[in-house]
Specification:
The protein is elongated. The protein is of the alpha/beta class and about 450 residues long. The strands form nine sheets. The chain has a six-stranded mixed β-sheet with strand order 6-3-2-10-22-21, with helices on one face. Helix 1 packs parallel to helix 9. The structure holds flavin-adenine dinucleotide (FAD). Flavin-adenine dinucleotide (FAD) binds next to helix 1, strand 3, helix 2, helix 6 and helix 9.
């Protein structure tokens, strides 16, 4: 993007919103009928429904089903312009937002850039252990999961085959739990009939959690239920355990080395680099510390919302959780403030943000979920139905809702996963090939001469 513009001479105040996730979109929509000129900037041209990313990663849904073009979502809103671009820095003193090729001035700025995966200072793990924050991440996880079975099918070395069929998921929060349940489902229900040289049910799925229980954000009874259900499905759960090394060959889990070619990271978040350019206090995870009005210290015209903010619930004093509801509610809250101030309300009259907890849920394998709604906790198929309804309701776009529902129905009744395309690098890496397969598709790393000898 190449722009250079100031607000001088503009008849309407300019609001720049950076990020078209739940938080950013809700600010923009909340200002629909306001006398402002909005610019929504995002480095992606689509809004992504992250809660269903793990279903893309495990071949249940197509990527486009869980994303919608931002321009299309906002096509009926006249006071907003959409800009595709990566914001590199914000100059609070000059009130300027910097892009790769230009800058834009603002009267109000709303930073809604979300968070990225944290490897707790071990960024070198990223290469061997992709996270799950974007469509690209999900496609990479899907590629690795599907390729693992393809390679194992033709791998003659027992040891190498075991490593290929070992999946380690680091992080026992909802994402790790959902991913583990889905991968074991792929291995035990989706694939068994389609492979002939291997028993896909022998795949190991290991879920590693540093804390004393799974899903610390959920009530105890539901976390225990999820734990039991996953174990019944065949997932090995290691609590109080940390991964200290990840290489191409496997992971160090405490003092134990586990040969595993598939490691996925679902264990922590950190703020986006652009947050550092504000020059304001950040919390330990690099999120921007905001006041009760979600504004940055000494800059009432700059708000940070959603996952990018380190905010406190004014009523309970607890941190506002990094969940879709936190993003939606802080987005609406800030839109209300801007709307009132455009009409003449004073900064001193701003309310304090208070989070309304609508509940939490997580899928535990096929047709099974746990849910906490108020004081009611439940699980099983009813939990799954509730989870499905809520997630479909919050998906953006009527077409996407229909597509997702019909795909779920089809997958459920057919016991299948339709989105099983291996994209990206399709090469398979096999140590000892079981029998002849076209050479151009295979990288035989050693023992080529032993090929064909052990089927
Ligand atoms: C795998 C996964 C599963 C989840 N499951 C659940 C769940 O079941 N329930 C739940 O409530 N929550 C869940 N969450 C959390 C929820 O998705 C987030 O809390 C929510 O998406 C946060 O919204 P946001 O708008 O703050 O950030 P995001 O949705 O992350 O949006 C940030 C936007 O900013 C853009 N951006 C970032 N940096 C820049 C830049 N420098 N310049 C321009 N644009 C930029 C990004 O492209 C993105 O569009 C899950 C998250 C993940 C990753």
């Amino acid at each position: 993007m190449n722009v250079s513009s100031t607000t001088v001479g503009q008849s309407k105040p300019r609001v720049i919103v950076i990020g078209g996730g739940f938080a950013g979109l809700n600010v923009v929509k909340g200002l629909k009928n306001s006398h402002v000129s909005i610019v929504l900037v995002d480095r992606c041209n689509y809004h992504l429904f992250q809660p269903l990313l793990y279903q893309v990663a495990t071949a249940e849904l197509e990527p486009a089903y869980i994303a919608a073009p931002i321009r299309s979502i906002l096509r009926k809103q006249d006071n907003v312009q959409v800009a595709l671009g990566e914001v590199t820095a914000v100059d609070l003193a000059e009130r300027l937002v910097h892009f790769d090729g230009g800058q834009l001035a603002y009267d109000y700025l709303v930073l809604a850039v979300g968070v990225r995966q944290s490897y707790f200072g071990h960024d070198e793990f990223r290469r061997h252990a992709p996270g799950l924050k974007s469509i690209d991440d999900a496609l990479e996880v899907r590629r690795r999961v599907l390729l693992a079975f393809e390679e194992a099918e033709w791998e003659a070395s027992d040891e190498a085959r075991r490593a290929k069929l070992t999946f380690v998921i680091v992080g026992g929060g909802p994402t790790g739990v959902e991913l583990a349940g889905a991968i074991i489902d792929v291995a035990t229900r989706t694939l068994p009939k389609e492979f002939h040289n291997i028993d896909t049910k022998t795949a190991r799925v290991i879920l590693i959690q540093g804390g004393e229980r799974l899903m610390p954000g959920m009530p105890d009874d539901l976390a225990s239920r999820a734990h039991r259900t996953l174990e019944k499905l065949g997932v090995e759960i290691r609590l109080h355990t940390r991964v200290t090394e990840v290489t191409e060959e496997g992971v160090m889990i405490g003092d134990e080395h586990v040969d595993a070619e598939n490691v996925f990271w679902a264990a922590g978040v950190q703020g986006q680099p652009v947050a550092q350019t504000l020059g304001v206090p950040l919390d330990r995870a690099g999120r921007v510390i905001v006041g009760p009005d979600m504004a940055v210290a000494d800059h009432p015209e700059v708000f940070v919302i959603g996952d990018a903010a380190s905010a406190t619930d004014a009523k309970t004093g607890r941190p506002v959780p990094g969940l879709a509801q936190g993003a939606i509610q802080t987005g609406r809250f800030v839109a209300n403030i801007i709307r009132s101030e455009i009409k003449g309300s004073k900064v001193g009259n701003r309310p304090a943000f208070s989070y309304y907890d609508k509940g939490s849920m997580a899928i535990i394998g096929r047709g099974n979920a746990v849910a906490a709604i108020g004081k009611t906790h439940f699980g099983g198929f009813l939990g799954w139905l509730t989870w499905s309804l809520v997630h479909v309701m919050f998906l953006v776009g009527f077409g996407n809702r229909l597509l997702v529902m019909s795909q779920w129905y089809w997958n459920y009744v057919r016991n299948s996963r339709q989105a099983r395309l291996i994209t990206g690098d399709p090469h398979i890496h096999i140590k000892q090939v079981r029998s002849a397969i076209p050479e151009k598709h295979v990288t035989v790393s050693d023992a080529r001469e032993t090929a064909n000898d052990s089927v």
